[in-house]
Amino acid sequence: MSHIPLSYAFKSVLARKLTTALTAGGMALVVFVFAAVLMLAQGLKDTLVQTGSADNVMVIRRGAETEVQSEVQRAQAAVIASLPQIAHGTGGQRLVSKETVVLMVLPKRGSLKPSNVVIRGLSAEGFALRPQVRLSQGRLFRPGAAEVIAGQKVAQGFLGAGIGERLRLGLRDWTVVGTFDAGDTGFSSEIWGDANQLMQAFRRQSFSSLIFKLGQPSALPAIRARIKDDPRLTVEAKRETQFYLEQSEVMVTFLDILGLTLSVMFSIGAVIGAMITMYAAVASRTSEIGTLRALGFRRRSILIAFLVESLVLALIGGVVGLGLASCMQFASISTMNWQSFSELAFRFSLTPSIALQSLVFALCMGLLGGFLPAVKAARMGITQAQRAA
């Protein structure tokens, strides 16, 4: 005889509203945790990747993992700044910025909890290299002056980083003269000032990095070869997007492992809950199962029908959990990036891939939870079902 219609499984689920709600709710919570952690890792990665530009090249000391660890001597910086592959701006100037990066401990507003903030010294060309950054309030710092501008997330979250406030950086006091909006990028969590002035304040004799724009995107291999062959240079060049992607690797790996561990732990409870629900469904519908067998439906059809019923429960829970997780996109969190040891603000990010993984995860829980009860229902004979009823 033909298979049991799929509508049978949906009607059976809707007939038990309370148990369906409880079982699907448990699965929804597990899917929520699973999706939220993946969204957290994706948001961190997106924030750092969007920080860089594919046309920009980052030059740091060979072997350094962050700009804070890097050191580029002035003579080396001059050699790199003269490379012919560097693009020129509208005014004919080379689009290269010699920058210094340090970490400063600043107190957070309200809690006064200390946290590391990136202080970046850059040249005028540094703004041209970052078109995603725009001044939102106040004005730009003046070259040669003890003035800085703060990313919006730093200005909102840290004491002394608002317009008109003063910060003690290195050996000098600095006035915050403006705030800038860098969107959902890592620059929003930085404070910028004049590179030469910051180097003097922190007693630095060398730069941390150089950033320049390529005249042609395909010129990077030639630049790398030239830097490698020059014995005066102990630096390496990589695309800015690649550099910032590497900055997310440690934290993203940790979040992926954390998400997998929590999801496995919580899913065990959800699978057991689904299994109990389906066993109860089998026990309460023995006469119904006997009738189906008497009508000529095969054991395989009954097995599939109960499996589909369990999968429907899981799908309901998965959709609800994913819906709850999607609301996290409106939240912004701030934490320390373990790669750079600096404060970084970012948002949860839901992608089609995460949505698909979450629903597949929910269906897997439904399959595991419904398999044994479905087997029990399929093995039940007509006489056994009538006797149990």
Description:
By secondary structure, this protein is an alpha+beta fold. It folds into two domains: 6-49 and 249-388, no CATH class; 63-233, no CATH class. It is 50% helix and 20% strand. It is built from 13 helices and twelve strands. The protein has helices spanning 6-15, 17-51, 74-81, 125-128, 152-157, 195-201, 220-229, 240-247, 249-284, 286-294, 299-326, 352-379, 382-388, and strands at residues 56-61, 96-107, 114-122, 134-138, 147-151, 166-169, 172-181, 190-194, 209-213, 235-239, 332-337, 342-347. The strands form two sheets. Strands 1, 2, 3, 4, 5, 6, 7, 8, 9 and 10 form a ten-stranded mixed beta sheet that branches. A two-stranded antiparallel sheet has the order 11-12. A hairpin with a 4-residue loop joins strand 11 (332-337) and strand 12. The mean pLDDT is 84.
Q: In terms of per-residue confidence, which ranges show pLDDT below 50 for 5 or more consecutive residues?
A: none
Number of domains: 2
- How much helix is in the residues? 40-55%
How many helices?
A: 13
CA(first)-CA(last) distance: 24 Å
Envelope shape = elongated
Strand content: 15-25%
H/E element string?
HHEHEEHEEHEEEHEHEHHHHEEHH
Main β-sheet description: 10 strands, mixed
Radius of gyration: 30 Å
Instruction: Please tally the β strands and state the result.
Output: 12
* Overall SS class: alpha+beta
Q: Overall pLDDT, averaged? A: 84
Could you outline the blueprint of secondary structure elements for this entry?
Blueprint: H1 6-15, H2 17-51, E1 56-61, H3 74-81, E2 96-107, E3 114-122, H4 125-128, E4 134-138, E5 147-151, H5 152-157, E6 166-169, E7 172-181, E8 190-194, H6 195-201, E9 209-213, H7 220-229, E10 235-239, H8 240-247, H9 249-284, H10 286-294, H11 299-326, E11 332-337, E12 342-347, H12 352-379, H13 382-388
Parallel strand pairs: 3-8, 5-7
Antiparallel strand pairs: 1-9, 1-10, 2-3, 2-9, 4-7, 5-8, 6-7, 11-12
Helix pairs in contact: 1-11, 2-8, 2-9, 2-11, 2-12, 9-12, 10-13, 11-12
